[in-house]
Amino acid sequence: MSRKKTSKSKAGSVPAASALPSPNGARPARPGTARSGHEAPPNGPQQRGRPSLGGGGDFYDVAFKVMLVGDSGVGKTCLLVRFKDGAFLAGTFISTVGIDFRNKVLDVDGMKVKLQIWDTAGQERFRSVTHAYYRDAHALLLLYDVTNKASFDNIQAWLTEIQEYAQDDVVLMLLGNKVDSAQERVVKREDGEKLAKLFTGVRTALHGDQCQDRPQRRLGLHCHSKGVETAYHEGAQRTSLPAA
Ligand SMILES: Nc1nc2c(ncn2[C@@H]2O[C@H](COP(=O)(O)OP(=O)(O)OP(=O)(O)O)[C@@H](O)[C@H]2O)c(=O)[nH]1
Ligand SMILES: [Mg+2]
C-alpha cells in the first residue's frame, strides 16, 4: 500500500469560475477501482509499524474525494465545519460562493483515510462551476433541509445532474438535515426513506445518532462498505454530532 503525504494546503476555495484550478488536479487516489486517466489505486496490504505521523497527521493510506451538494441553505457548509472542526456555524447565514474544500484524515480500522471534502454553492448561478467537479468525486452527499419542502422536492433535479456529470459508480448518500428543528419540520422521515428507496443505485447511509460511535460513519463510508443501500440518513449540525 502506498503512503502519501498531503499537500501543505488543508483547505481552499474557488470563488469564481474564471479562477478555477483543474477540478481533477488535486484528485486523490481511489482504492479498488481503475478509471482511465485516474491515479492508480493504493490497495496493497495494510502496513504495520507506520512511522509517527507527527502533529499534522500528514500521511495517509487511501484518499477519497467527497462532494456536498444540495439547495442553498440546507446546511452543507455547516455539516463540513461540524465534521472538520466539531463546531456549529451559528449566526448569519453566509452563502458559499463557488466551491471550497477541506481535508481531513481519519483513522479507520487502523488505516489513515484522507477525505478531501468539497463544499459546493447551492445557488443556481454557481451550478456550472460545480459541474466540473462531479467527475472525480468518489462520494456525493446530497442534502436537503427537513424544514424546507422545496429543498426536498429539488432532490430529483439534483439526481438528474448527478446522473449527467458524476461517475456511474459514485457513492451517493441522501441526508435530511436540521432534524433538531422538530417544530418546523415539514418533510417526514418516511418520505426521506421512500425517496431513498425509489432510486435504484442511490445508496444512502445512516448518520448522526446511529453512527456516533465512529467518526467516519458520519460520512457513511463505513456504512456503505457494509453494503447499506437504502437506509435513510438524518443529521443536525446544531446539536447532535460530537467533535471528531
Ligand atoms: N437548526 C439547524 N440549522 C442549521 C443546521 N445546519 C445548518 N443550519 C443553518 O442553516 C443555514 C444555512 O447553512 P449553510 O451550511 O451555510 O448552508 P449551505 O447549504 O452551505 O448553503 P449554500 O452555501 O448557499 O449552498 C445557516 O443559518 C445555519 O446556521 C442544522 O442542522 N440545524
Ligand atoms: Mg455553503
TrEMBL record:
Membrane topology: Lipid-anchor
EC number per UniProt: 3.6.5.2
GO cellular component: membrane
Localization terms from the record: Membrane
Record's catalysed reaction(s): GTP + H2O = GDP + phosphate + H(+)
PANTHER family: LD44762P
Name the UniProt record assigns to this protein: small monomeric GTPase
Organism of provenance: Heterocephalus glaber (Naked mole rat)
